[in-house]
Amino acid sequence: MTATDPALTALANGWAALCLLHGRIETHIERALQAGHGLSVREYSLLDVLSRQHDGEGGHLQMKQVADAVVLSQSATTRLVARLEDRGLLSRYLCPTDRRGIYTDVSDTGLKLLQEARPTNATALREALDEAARKPELAPLVTAVEKNPAPRPPALHSAR
Q1: SS (H, E, C) 37-96
Q2: What does pTM read for this prediction?
Q3: Which end of the chain is more exposed for a tag (fewer CB within 10 A), N or C?
């Protein structure tokens, strides 16, 4: 295959369209969450992921699992956790059975903000998809997103 191979060109064009769709959606949601709730997309995602933890066996995520779920590096995730903790939206504490492990939980204030922000996130996502569906180069991707079953959440493994 060469750089001018039609299959490679089509693949590159498809990738560019997917990146364009993602960027448009993320920008639209970012603006809505910032304006309505003072949250970034990453902050919202982190609160959402952490709010789904539970106290039972395997209920708390390790920082690597959180980083994977919000698609950030572990160091960026740690910085994001620290910023949200400073705002009183999260708390961190030592794992009771492994003093090396640190758990992160959403505070009551964080849960309240998340509940208020969820409809904004959903509305902004719908608006961004509807707008993108009007673009011929993005419409097939919107259809694929709308027909794709929701991914299963990452497996919760105990940090113990």
Answers
A1: HCCCHHHHHHHHHHHCCCCCCCCCCCHHHHHHHHCCCHHHHHHHHHHHHHCCCEEEEECC
A2: 0.83
A3: N
